[in-house]
């Protein structure tokens, strides 16, 4: 059941009218104090009276529910202590104190929480992150508010702790089980209120099922050209031993269409493609994959560079895969960054980067024509 305040799943933001409007929108990050990220989780977990006030959190809650990829500028006060101690304590007066110095200095509890959250997120204060990733990292790394919203001196007059810290509001959200992409797509709106899906809205099952039916039928029956993002060209090969369609994507349909017609043109499109229509982490209005939007852009460009093709190149599927087999040595080259490095959650290697599916497909001549494809 959807938690109170999580919004109406039928509400969607209007489609931006043009690319320039999207660029302006993306540049206007919503500022949020770092520890208010925690307060927002507590509200989704049932807290009705967060110390900062519900009104301080509502813009954040509304924006994320409307657009899971809205940019959040996660703030913390780093400039307060640039004031020289003589100016502060001896009223030397050679330099003006920072604006609203006394109020900011008195907010030492909040400033400590903000910096602690930034540390746990692994970011510098005032970094902008998509809301989806800010909360994916937060909920993964911070399972409890103990040590952040509590204090080692709980009775202190100077360092009071949050009165709701022990109520379990945050933990009820953060403790949700991790679910595969298939499970997420199967459950749809039933995910609402669970983990990351308490903060951002999942797609409904009906919407995803309809998208799957329409897109799969088009790929198999009516498409005279396929649109595939470059790194998904490798994902297609990873389904070589799977024959039944997948609920969360169209990889099987695309592979079978190319097996049946190795001369069908394939356009290498940057951004989400024919693979994505039915996926729970795909927003068809914003045309963005919440989970892989960042890293897949770099993977696409790496693929195009290896294949010596420009973005938007179109060629028959058999010629495309002949280039793949000739120029890509292993999945590790693209899907594992060459060295398996994992510098941040949104740059993580694909889970199958050490697999041998590419080698097997190369040996079988998959999609080159005259193969069984299975």
- Widest beta sheet: strand line-up: 1-2-3
From the spread of the alpha carbons, the general shape counts as elongated
Distance between the termini: 41 Å
Largest sheet: 3 strands, mixed
Structural write-up:
The chain has 374 residues and is mainly alpha-helical. The protein folds into 2 domains: 19-198, no CATH class; 205-364, no CATH class. It has helices spanning 19-27, 36-44, 54-66, 85-89, 101-106, 108-121, 131-141, 169-174, 181-187, 205-222, 230-237, 251-260, 293-307, 317-327, 331-335, 357-364, and strands at 30-33, 71-75, 127-130, 226-228, 265-268, 282-283, 288-289, 314-316. It has a 3-stranded mixed β-sheet. A 3-stranded mixed β-sheet has the order 4-5-8. Helix 2 (36-44) packs across helix 3 (54-66) and helix 11 (230-237) crosses helix 12 (251-260). The protein is elongated.
Task: Using brief descriptors, characterize the structure shown.
374 residues; mainly alpha; 2 domains; three-stranded mixed sheet; 16 helices; 8 strands; 41% helix; elongated; disordered N terminus
Brief sketch in words of this structure:
The protein has 374 residues and is mainly alpha-helical. It contains 16 helices and 8 strands.
Topology overview:
Elements: H1 19-27, E1 30-33, H2 36-44, H3 54-66, E2 71-75, H4 85-89, H5 101-106, H6 108-121, E3 127-130, H7 131-141, H8 169-174, H9 181-187, H10 205-222, E4 226-228, H11 230-237, H12 251-260, E5 265-268, E6 282-283, E7 288-289, H13 293-307, E8 314-316, H14 317-327, H15 331-335, H16 357-364
Parallel strand pairs: 1-2, 4-5
Antiparallel strand pairs: 2-3, 5-8, 6-7
């Amino acid at each position: 059941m959807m938690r109170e305040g999580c919004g109406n799943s039928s509400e969607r933001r209007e489609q931006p009218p043009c690319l320039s409007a999207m660029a302006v929108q993306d540049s206007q990050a919503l500022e949020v104090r770092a520890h208010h990220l925690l307060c927002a989780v507590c509200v989704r977990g049932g807290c009705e009276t967060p110390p900062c006030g519900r009104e301080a959190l509502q813009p954040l809650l509304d924006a994320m529910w409307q657009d899971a990829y809205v940019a959040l500028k996660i703030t913390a006060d780093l400039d307060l202590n640039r004031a020289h101690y003589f100016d502060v304590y001896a009223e030397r007066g050679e330099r003006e104190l920072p604006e609203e110095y006394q109020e900011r200095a008195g907010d030492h509890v909040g400033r400590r929480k903000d910096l602690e959250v930034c540390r746990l997120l692994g970011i510098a204060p005032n970094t902008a992150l998509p809301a989806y990733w800010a909360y994916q990292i937060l909920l993964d790394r911070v399972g409890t508010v103990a040590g952040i919203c509590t204090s080692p001196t709980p009775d202190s007059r100077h360092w009071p702790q949050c009165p709701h810290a022990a109520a379990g509001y945050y933990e009820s959200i953060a403790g949700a089980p991790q679910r595969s992409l298939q499970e997420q797509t199967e459950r749809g709106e039933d995910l609402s209120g669970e983990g990351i899906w308490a903060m951002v809205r999942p797609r409904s099952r009906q919407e995803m099922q309809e998208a799957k039916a329409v897109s799969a039928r088009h790929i198999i029956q009516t498409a005279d050209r396929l649109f595939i993002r470059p790194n998904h060209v490798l994902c297609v090969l990873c389904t070589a031993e799977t024959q039944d369609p997948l609920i969360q994507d169209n990889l099987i349909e695309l592979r079978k269409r190319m097996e049946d017609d190795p001369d069908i043109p394939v356009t290498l499109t940057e951004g989400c493609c024919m693979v994505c229509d039915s996926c729970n982490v795909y927003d068809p209005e914003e045309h963005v994959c919440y989970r892989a939007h960042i890293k897949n852009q770099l993977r696409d460009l790496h693929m195009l560079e290896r294949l010596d093709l420009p973005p938007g190149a179109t060629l028959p599927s058999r010629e495309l895969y002949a280039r793949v087999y000739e120029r890509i040595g292993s999945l590790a080259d693209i899907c594992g960054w060459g060295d398996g490095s994992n510098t941040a959650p949104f740059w993580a290697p694909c889970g199958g980067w050490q697999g041998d599916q590419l080698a097997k497909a190369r040996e079988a001549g998959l999609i080159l024509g005259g193969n069984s494809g299975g």
